[in-house]
Amino acid sequence: MTNQPVDPALESLLERWRGFRLRGGATDTDELDGPLRTSIATLRDAGLTTDEAFLIAVRRLAATDRSTREFVRTDADRLWPSTAGAQTGAPADRRELWVVLGLAVGAGIAVKAGLVLTGGEADFALNLSVLVLPFLAGYLAWKRQAGPRLLAAAALPFIAVALLLNTFPFAPDGATQILAAIHAPIVLWFVVGLAYVGGDWRSDRRRMDFVRFTGEFAIYFSLLALGGGVLVGLTAGTFTALGVDPEPVLGEWVVPFGAAGAVLVAAWLVETKQNNVVENIAPLLTRVFTPLTSLMLLALLVTLLGRGGVVAADRDLLIMMDLILVLVSGLLLYAISARDPLGPPDLFDRLQLVLVVSALAVDLLMLSAMLGRIAEFGYTPNKVTALGLNVLLLIHLIRAAWLSAAFLRGRGGFDAIERWQTGYLPVYWAWAAVVVAVVPPAFDFG
Protein backbone atom coordinates (compact mmCIF):
# COMPACT_ATOMS: atom_id res chain seq x y z
CA MET A 1 0.00 0.00 0.00
CA THR A 2 1.40 3.44 -0.96
CA ASN A 3 1.39 6.06 1.77
CA GLN A 4 -1.21 8.68 1.01
CA PRO A 5 -0.87 12.35 1.98
CA VAL A 6 -3.48 13.82 4.31
CA ASP A 7 -6.60 14.49 2.26
CA PRO A 8 -9.02 17.02 3.82
CA ALA A 9 -11.87 15.70 1.67
CA LEU A 10 -11.27 12.16 2.90
CA GLU A 11 -10.99 13.28 6.51
CA SER A 12 -14.32 15.11 6.17
CA LEU A 13 -15.98 11.95 4.84
CA LEU A 14 -14.47 9.82 7.59
CA GLU A 15 -15.62 12.33 10.19
CA ARG A 16 -19.17 12.00 8.88
CA TRP A 17 -18.94 8.24 9.18
CA ARG A 18 -17.46 8.43 12.69
CA GLY A 19 -20.02 10.97 13.86
CA PHE A 20 -22.91 8.88 12.57
CA ARG A 21 -21.68 5.74 14.35
CA LEU A 22 -20.99 7.58 17.60
CA ARG A 23 -24.46 9.16 17.60
CA GLY A 24 -25.88 5.68 17.08
CA GLY A 25 -24.08 4.39 20.18
CA ALA A 26 -21.42 2.29 18.38
CA THR A 27 -18.37 1.64 20.58
CA ASP A 28 -15.96 0.07 18.08
CA THR A 29 -15.48 3.04 15.73
CA ASP A 30 -11.77 3.40 16.50
CA GLU A 31 -11.20 -0.30 15.82
CA LEU A 32 -12.85 -0.08 12.39
CA ASP A 33 -11.20 3.21 11.43
CA GLY A 34 -7.85 1.62 10.59
CA PRO A 35 -9.15 -1.17 8.31
CA LEU A 36 -11.44 1.31 6.57
CA ARG A 37 -8.54 3.68 5.86
CA THR A 38 -6.48 0.77 4.55
CA SER A 39 -9.26 -0.26 2.19
CA ILE A 40 -9.65 3.31 0.95
CA ALA A 41 -5.92 3.67 0.37
CA THR A 42 -5.84 0.46 -1.66
CA LEU A 43 -8.69 1.65 -3.84
CA ARG A 44 -7.05 5.03 -4.38
CA ASP A 45 -3.82 3.31 -5.38
CA ALA A 46 -5.89 1.49 -8.00
CA GLY A 47 -6.86 4.84 -9.54
CA LEU A 48 -10.19 5.66 -7.89
CA THR A 49 -11.00 9.14 -6.65
CA THR A 50 -11.37 9.86 -2.95
CA ASP A 51 -15.17 9.88 -3.12
CA GLU A 52 -15.30 6.66 -5.13
CA ALA A 53 -12.81 4.88 -2.86
CA PHE A 54 -14.67 5.93 0.28
CA LEU A 55 -18.04 4.92 -1.16
CA ILE A 56 -16.84 1.45 -2.15
CA ALA A 57 -14.93 0.92 1.10
CA VAL A 58 -17.85 1.76 3.37
CA ARG A 59 -20.18 -0.38 1.29
CA ARG A 60 -17.83 -3.29 1.78
CA LEU A 61 -17.67 -2.60 5.51
CA ALA A 62 -21.47 -2.35 5.59
CA ALA A 63 -21.68 -6.02 4.67
CA THR A 64 -20.42 -6.93 8.17
CA ASP A 65 -21.18 -3.84 10.27
CA ARG A 66 -24.79 -2.88 10.98
CA SER A 67 -24.06 0.74 11.94
CA THR A 68 -22.08 1.37 8.75
CA ARG A 69 -24.87 -0.28 6.76
CA GLU A 70 -27.32 2.20 8.27
CA PHE A 71 -24.93 5.05 7.45
CA VAL A 72 -24.79 3.96 3.81
CA ARG A 73 -28.56 3.55 3.63
CA THR A 74 -29.25 6.93 5.21
CA ASP A 75 -26.57 9.21 3.85
CA ALA A 76 -24.85 7.75 0.80
CA ASP A 77 -27.10 9.31 -1.83
CA ARG A 78 -26.72 12.73 -0.24
CA LEU A 79 -22.95 12.57 0.06
CA TRP A 80 -22.16 11.24 -3.39
CA PRO A 81 -24.99 11.98 -5.86
CA SER A 82 -22.53 12.57 -8.69
CA THR A 83 -20.73 9.28 -8.02
CA ALA A 84 -23.99 7.36 -8.19
CA GLY A 85 -24.90 9.05 -11.44
CA ALA A 86 -21.47 8.42 -12.92
CA GLN A 87 -22.11 4.71 -12.98
CA THR A 88 -24.47 5.05 -15.93
CA GLY A 89 -22.79 4.47 -19.26
CA ALA A 90 -23.28 6.43 -22.45
CA PRO A 91 -25.34 3.76 -24.27
CA ALA A 92 -27.73 3.54 -21.32
CA ASP A 93 -27.95 7.35 -21.28
CA ARG A 94 -28.90 7.40 -24.95
CA ARG A 95 -31.46 4.66 -24.46
CA GLU A 96 -33.01 6.54 -21.56
CA LEU A 97 -33.12 9.73 -23.63
CA TRP A 98 -35.04 7.94 -26.39
CA VAL A 99 -37.46 6.54 -23.80
CA VAL A 100 -38.02 10.04 -22.39
CA LEU A 101 -38.55 11.54 -25.84
CA GLY A 102 -41.00 8.77 -26.76
CA LEU A 103 -42.99 9.32 -23.56
CA ALA A 104 -42.88 13.09 -24.13
CA VAL A 105 -44.42 12.61 -27.56
CA GLY A 106 -47.01 10.30 -26.02
CA ALA A 107 -47.89 12.92 -23.41
CA GLY A 108 -48.22 15.52 -26.18
CA ILE A 109 -50.55 13.24 -28.14
CA ALA A 110 -52.64 12.66 -25.00
CA VAL A 111 -52.93 16.40 -24.38
CA LYS A 112 -53.84 17.06 -28.00
CA ALA A 113 -56.47 14.32 -27.88
CA GLY A 114 -57.78 15.76 -24.63
CA LEU A 115 -58.18 19.16 -26.24
CA VAL A 116 -60.20 17.60 -29.04
CA LEU A 117 -62.31 15.14 -27.04
CA THR A 118 -63.19 17.14 -23.93
CA GLY A 119 -66.24 19.33 -24.03
CA GLY A 120 -64.50 22.61 -23.22
CA GLU A 121 -61.69 24.34 -21.34
CA ALA A 122 -63.11 23.39 -17.92
CA ASP A 123 -63.28 19.68 -18.79
CA PHE A 124 -59.78 19.79 -20.29
CA ALA A 125 -58.34 21.47 -17.18
CA LEU A 126 -60.11 18.87 -15.05
CA ASN A 127 -58.38 16.05 -16.93
CA LEU A 128 -54.97 17.62 -17.57
CA SER A 129 -53.15 15.79 -14.77
CA VAL A 130 -54.71 12.48 -15.85
CA LEU A 131 -53.43 13.07 -19.38
CA VAL A 132 -49.81 13.93 -18.53
CA LEU A 133 -48.75 12.47 -15.19
CA PRO A 134 -49.19 8.78 -16.18
CA PHE A 135 -46.34 9.25 -18.66
CA LEU A 136 -44.13 10.73 -15.94
CA ALA A 137 -44.98 7.87 -13.59
CA GLY A 138 -44.28 5.44 -16.42
CA TYR A 139 -40.82 6.91 -16.97
CA LEU A 140 -39.92 6.69 -13.28
CA ALA A 141 -41.30 3.16 -13.03
CA TRP A 142 -39.22 2.15 -16.07
CA LYS A 143 -36.18 3.84 -14.52
CA ARG A 144 -36.70 1.86 -11.29
CA GLN A 145 -37.34 -1.37 -13.22
CA ALA A 146 -40.72 -1.67 -11.50
CA GLY A 147 -42.43 -5.02 -11.32
CA PRO A 148 -46.06 -5.83 -12.16
CA ARG A 149 -47.26 -5.17 -8.60
CA LEU A 150 -45.87 -1.62 -8.54
CA LEU A 151 -47.19 -0.90 -12.02
CA ALA A 152 -50.67 -2.04 -10.98
CA ALA A 153 -50.49 -0.02 -7.75
CA ALA A 154 -49.58 3.08 -9.75
CA ALA A 155 -52.13 2.52 -12.53
CA LEU A 156 -55.18 2.01 -10.32
CA PRO A 157 -55.23 5.53 -8.79
CA PHE A 158 -54.96 7.09 -12.26
CA ILE A 159 -57.89 5.00 -13.47
CA ALA A 160 -59.94 5.78 -10.34
CA VAL A 161 -59.32 9.53 -10.55
CA ALA A 162 -60.09 9.58 -14.27
CA LEU A 163 -63.40 7.77 -13.67
CA LEU A 164 -64.39 10.09 -10.84
CA LEU A 165 -63.54 13.25 -12.75
CA ASN A 166 -65.46 12.17 -15.82
CA THR A 167 -68.50 10.55 -14.23
CA PHE A 168 -69.29 13.07 -11.48
CA PRO A 169 -72.12 15.36 -12.70
CA PHE A 170 -70.32 18.60 -11.85
CA ALA A 171 -72.22 21.84 -12.25
CA PRO A 172 -70.51 23.84 -15.02
CA ASP A 173 -67.76 25.96 -13.44
CA GLY A 174 -69.07 24.99 -10.01
CA ALA A 175 -66.98 25.15 -6.85
CA THR A 176 -66.61 21.38 -6.52
CA GLN A 177 -65.43 21.07 -10.13
CA ILE A 178 -62.73 23.69 -9.52
CA LEU A 179 -61.71 22.01 -6.26
CA ALA A 180 -61.44 18.63 -8.00
CA ALA A 181 -59.34 20.15 -10.79
CA ILE A 182 -56.96 21.64 -8.21
CA HIS A 183 -56.63 18.58 -5.98
CA ALA A 184 -56.52 15.81 -8.59
CA PRO A 185 -52.92 16.73 -9.58
CA ILE A 186 -51.95 16.57 -5.89
CA VAL A 187 -53.41 13.08 -5.53
CA LEU A 188 -51.69 11.89 -8.69
CA TRP A 189 -48.36 13.53 -7.84
CA PHE A 190 -48.20 11.23 -4.83
CA VAL A 191 -48.74 8.33 -7.23
CA VAL A 192 -45.77 9.65 -9.23
CA GLY A 193 -43.91 9.55 -5.91
CA LEU A 194 -44.81 5.88 -5.52
CA ALA A 195 -43.16 5.19 -8.87
CA TYR A 196 -40.17 7.34 -7.90
CA VAL A 197 -39.43 5.47 -4.67
CA GLY A 198 -39.81 2.16 -6.47
CA GLY A 199 -42.51 0.99 -4.11
CA ASP A 200 -40.38 1.66 -1.02
CA TRP A 201 -42.96 4.14 0.28
CA ARG A 202 -42.40 3.21 3.93
CA SER A 203 -38.83 4.57 3.82
CA ASP A 204 -38.46 8.07 5.28
CA ARG A 205 -35.24 8.50 3.31
CA ARG A 206 -36.88 7.67 0.00
CA ARG A 207 -39.77 10.00 0.76
CA MET A 208 -37.29 12.80 1.41
CA ASP A 209 -35.56 11.90 -1.86
CA PHE A 210 -38.89 12.44 -3.59
CA VAL A 211 -39.24 15.82 -1.87
CA ARG A 212 -35.88 16.83 -3.31
CA PHE A 213 -36.93 15.48 -6.71
CA THR A 214 -40.11 17.59 -6.53
CA GLY A 215 -38.18 20.77 -5.74
CA GLU A 216 -35.57 20.22 -8.43
CA PHE A 217 -38.28 19.23 -10.91
CA ALA A 218 -40.08 22.53 -10.21
CA ILE A 219 -36.87 24.47 -10.84
CA TYR A 220 -36.07 22.69 -14.10
CA PHE A 221 -39.67 22.85 -15.33
CA SER A 222 -39.83 26.59 -14.58
CA LEU A 223 -36.61 27.17 -16.51
CA LEU A 224 -37.91 25.13 -19.45
CA ALA A 225 -41.23 26.99 -19.35
CA LEU A 226 -39.49 30.39 -19.32
CA GLY A 227 -37.19 29.41 -22.16
CA GLY A 228 -40.04 27.89 -24.14
CA GLY A 229 -42.18 30.95 -23.59
CA VAL A 230 -39.46 33.24 -24.90
CA LEU A 231 -38.88 30.99 -27.92
CA VAL A 232 -42.59 30.81 -28.76
CA GLY A 233 -42.92 34.58 -28.35
CA LEU A 234 -40.00 35.31 -30.64
CA THR A 235 -41.26 32.82 -33.21
CA ALA A 236 -44.75 34.30 -33.14
CA GLY A 237 -43.37 37.82 -33.51
CA THR A 238 -41.15 36.85 -36.42
CA PHE A 239 -43.89 35.09 -38.39
CA THR A 240 -46.34 37.90 -37.66
CA ALA A 241 -43.85 40.43 -39.02
CA LEU A 242 -43.66 38.30 -42.18
CA GLY A 243 -47.43 38.46 -42.55
CA VAL A 244 -48.00 34.81 -41.54
CA ASP A 245 -50.40 33.89 -38.75
CA PRO A 246 -48.53 31.41 -36.49
CA GLU A 247 -51.44 30.83 -34.09
CA PRO A 248 -52.83 27.62 -35.69
CA VAL A 249 -49.48 25.87 -35.46
CA LEU A 250 -48.14 27.36 -32.23
CA GLY A 251 -51.37 27.33 -30.27
CA GLU A 252 -52.73 23.99 -31.43
CA TRP A 253 -49.55 21.94 -31.77
CA VAL A 254 -46.31 23.48 -30.46
CA VAL A 255 -47.58 24.66 -27.09
CA PRO A 256 -49.52 21.47 -26.14
CA PHE A 257 -46.67 19.18 -27.17
CA GLY A 258 -44.02 21.46 -25.69
CA ALA A 259 -45.73 21.86 -22.32
CA ALA A 260 -46.44 18.15 -21.96
CA GLY A 261 -42.96 17.20 -23.13
CA ALA A 262 -41.35 19.63 -20.70
CA VAL A 263 -42.75 17.57 -17.81
CA LEU A 264 -40.83 14.50 -19.00
CA VAL A 265 -37.68 16.41 -19.92
CA ALA A 266 -37.55 18.19 -16.55
CA ALA A 267 -37.81 14.85 -14.75
CA TRP A 268 -35.10 13.39 -16.97
CA LEU A 269 -32.78 16.31 -16.22
CA VAL A 270 -33.25 15.79 -12.49
CA GLU A 271 -32.69 12.04 -12.76
CA THR A 272 -29.60 12.14 -14.94
CA LYS A 273 -27.99 15.14 -13.19
CA GLN A 274 -26.42 16.22 -16.45
CA ASN A 275 -25.96 19.62 -14.86
CA ASN A 276 -25.11 19.97 -11.18
CA VAL A 277 -26.35 23.55 -11.07
CA VAL A 278 -29.53 22.59 -9.21
CA GLU A 279 -27.57 20.67 -6.59
CA ASN A 280 -25.67 23.88 -5.87
CA ILE A 281 -28.58 26.29 -6.29
CA ALA A 282 -31.28 24.42 -4.36
CA PRO A 283 -29.71 24.80 -0.88
CA LEU A 284 -28.80 28.39 -1.75
CA LEU A 285 -32.39 29.19 -2.76
CA THR A 286 -33.73 27.87 0.52
CA ARG A 287 -31.23 30.00 2.45
CA VAL A 288 -32.23 33.09 0.49
CA PHE A 289 -35.99 32.64 0.58
CA THR A 290 -36.35 31.35 4.15
CA PRO A 291 -35.41 34.68 5.81
CA LEU A 292 -37.28 36.67 3.16
CA THR A 293 -40.42 34.59 3.64
CA SER A 294 -40.09 34.93 7.42
CA LEU A 295 -39.99 38.72 7.08
CA MET A 296 -43.02 38.64 4.80
CA LEU A 297 -44.99 36.52 7.28
CA LEU A 298 -44.05 38.76 10.18
CA ALA A 299 -45.13 41.83 8.20
CA LEU A 300 -48.44 40.13 7.33
CA LEU A 301 -48.93 39.14 10.95
CA VAL A 302 -48.41 42.71 12.16
CA THR A 303 -50.76 44.03 9.48
CA LEU A 304 -53.49 41.51 10.30
CA LEU A 305 -53.28 42.24 14.01
CA GLY A 306 -53.29 45.97 13.29
CA ARG A 307 -56.55 45.67 11.40
CA GLY A 308 -58.24 44.37 14.50
CA GLY A 309 -60.99 42.67 12.52
CA VAL A 310 -59.34 39.46 11.37
CA VAL A 311 -62.59 37.53 11.57
CA ALA A 312 -64.07 39.91 9.01
CA ALA A 313 -61.32 39.18 6.47
CA ASP A 314 -62.71 38.73 2.96
CA ARG A 315 -62.53 35.51 0.98
CA ASP A 316 -59.78 36.66 -1.42
CA LEU A 317 -57.49 37.46 1.50
CA LEU A 318 -58.11 34.05 3.07
CA ILE A 319 -57.34 32.31 -0.23
CA MET A 320 -54.10 34.25 -0.66
CA MET A 321 -53.05 33.53 2.91
CA ASP A 322 -53.72 29.81 2.43
CA LEU A 323 -51.57 29.82 -0.69
CA ILE A 324 -48.78 31.52 1.26
CA LEU A 325 -49.00 28.96 4.07
CA VAL A 326 -48.82 26.10 1.56
CA LEU A 327 -45.78 27.78 -0.02
CA VAL A 328 -44.16 28.15 3.40
CA SER A 329 -44.76 24.47 4.20
CA GLY A 330 -43.23 23.48 0.88
CA LEU A 331 -40.24 25.75 1.44
CA LEU A 332 -39.74 24.30 4.92
CA LEU A 333 -39.89 20.74 3.62
CA TYR A 334 -37.50 21.44 0.76
CA ALA A 335 -35.06 23.28 3.05
CA ILE A 336 -34.98 20.25 5.34
CA SER A 337 -34.37 17.95 2.38
CA ALA A 338 -31.40 20.08 1.26
CA ARG A 339 -29.77 20.19 4.71
CA ASP A 340 -26.87 18.04 5.84
CA PRO A 341 -28.60 15.73 8.35
CA LEU A 342 -25.37 15.16 10.28
CA GLY A 343 -24.52 18.83 10.74
CA PRO A 344 -24.93 20.62 14.10
CA PRO A 345 -27.62 23.30 14.64
CA ASP A 346 -26.73 26.62 13.05
CA LEU A 347 -28.17 30.08 12.41
CA PHE A 348 -30.21 28.82 9.45
CA ASP A 349 -31.98 26.30 11.69
CA ARG A 350 -32.97 29.17 13.98
CA LEU A 351 -34.29 31.12 11.00
CA GLN A 352 -36.36 28.10 10.04
CA LEU A 353 -37.86 28.00 13.51
CA VAL A 354 -38.79 31.67 13.13
CA LEU A 355 -40.42 30.80 9.81
CA VAL A 356 -42.41 27.95 11.36
CA VAL A 357 -43.57 29.97 14.36
CA SER A 358 -44.59 32.90 12.13
CA ALA A 359 -46.53 30.57 9.84
CA LEU A 360 -48.16 28.97 12.88
CA ALA A 361 -49.36 32.35 14.16
CA VAL A 362 -50.75 33.29 10.74
CA ASP A 363 -52.49 29.91 10.45
CA LEU A 364 -54.20 30.42 13.81
CA LEU A 365 -55.47 33.81 12.65
CA MET A 366 -56.73 32.29 9.41
CA LEU A 367 -58.52 29.53 11.29
CA SER A 368 -60.28 32.05 13.49
CA ALA A 369 -61.30 34.02 10.40
CA MET A 370 -62.61 30.92 8.64
CA LEU A 371 -64.60 29.79 11.65
CA GLY A 372 -66.09 33.28 11.85
CA ARG A 373 -67.14 33.23 8.21
CA ILE A 374 -68.63 29.72 8.57
CA ALA A 375 -70.60 30.82 11.64
CA GLU A 376 -71.90 33.85 9.76
CA PHE A 377 -72.51 32.49 6.27
CA GLY A 378 -72.61 28.71 6.66
CA TYR A 379 -70.65 25.91 5.01
CA THR A 380 -69.58 25.85 1.36
CA PRO A 381 -67.25 23.43 -0.51
CA ASN A 382 -64.50 26.05 -0.57
CA LYS A 383 -64.79 26.76 3.16
CA VAL A 384 -64.76 23.10 4.12
CA THR A 385 -61.72 22.45 1.92
CA ALA A 386 -59.85 25.46 3.24
CA LEU A 387 -60.76 24.67 6.85
CA GLY A 388 -59.51 21.10 6.52
CA LEU A 389 -56.26 22.27 4.93
CA ASN A 390 -55.65 24.81 7.67
CA VAL A 391 -56.25 22.24 10.40
CA LEU A 392 -53.73 19.92 8.74
CA LEU A 393 -51.23 22.77 8.41
CA LEU A 394 -51.76 23.67 12.07
CA ILE A 395 -50.92 20.14 13.24
CA HIS A 396 -47.97 19.98 10.85
CA LEU A 397 -46.51 23.31 12.00
CA ILE A 398 -47.01 22.72 15.73
CA ARG A 399 -45.11 19.44 15.65
CA ALA A 400 -42.44 20.88 13.34
CA ALA A 401 -41.89 23.82 15.71
CA TRP A 402 -41.66 21.49 18.72
CA LEU A 403 -39.09 19.21 17.05
CA SER A 404 -37.07 22.13 15.68
CA ALA A 405 -36.87 23.74 19.13
CA ALA A 406 -35.77 20.42 20.64
CA PHE A 407 -33.06 20.08 17.98
CA LEU A 408 -31.77 23.59 18.66
CA ARG A 409 -31.65 22.88 22.40
CA GLY A 410 -29.72 19.66 21.81
CA ARG A 411 -32.59 17.51 23.09
CA GLY A 412 -33.42 15.82 19.81
CA GLY A 413 -31.83 14.80 16.54
CA PHE A 414 -32.43 16.16 13.08
CA ASP A 415 -33.65 12.74 12.00
CA ALA A 416 -36.79 13.24 14.12
CA ILE A 417 -37.60 16.38 12.11
CA GLU A 418 -37.12 14.47 8.85
CA ARG A 419 -39.30 11.58 9.99
CA TRP A 420 -42.12 13.93 10.98
CA GLN A 421 -42.01 15.81 7.68
CA THR A 422 -41.96 12.72 5.49
CA GLY A 423 -44.37 10.78 7.68
CA TYR A 424 -46.96 13.57 7.48
CA LEU A 425 -46.97 13.79 3.68
CA PRO A 426 -49.58 11.01 3.22
CA VAL A 427 -51.99 13.06 5.34
CA TYR A 428 -52.03 15.77 2.68
CA TRP A 429 -52.54 13.11 0.02
CA ALA A 430 -55.49 11.70 1.95
CA TRP A 431 -57.09 15.14 2.29
CA ALA A 432 -56.63 15.86 -1.43
CA ALA A 433 -58.28 12.52 -2.19
CA VAL A 434 -61.21 13.45 0.08
CA VAL A 435 -61.62 16.76 -1.76
CA VAL A 436 -61.71 14.96 -5.12
CA ALA A 437 -63.89 12.00 -4.16
CA VAL A 438 -66.04 13.04 -1.18
CA VAL A 439 -66.57 16.82 -1.19
CA PRO A 440 -68.28 17.03 -4.63
CA PRO A 441 -71.09 14.51 -3.86
CA ALA A 442 -71.41 15.92 -0.32
CA PHE A 443 -72.36 19.29 -1.86
CA ASP A 444 -74.41 17.89 -4.77
CA PHE A 445 -71.59 18.62 -7.26
CA GLY A 446 -72.31 22.33 -7.08
Automatic annotation (TrEMBL):
Transmembrane regions: 97-118, 124-142, 149-171, 177-197, 217-241, 253-272, 284-305, 317-338, 350-372, 384-402, 423-443
Keywords per UniProt: Membrane, Transmembrane, Transmembrane helix
Record's keyword annotation contains Membrane: yes
Protein name as annotated: DUF4153 domain-containing protein
Originating organism: Skermania pinensis
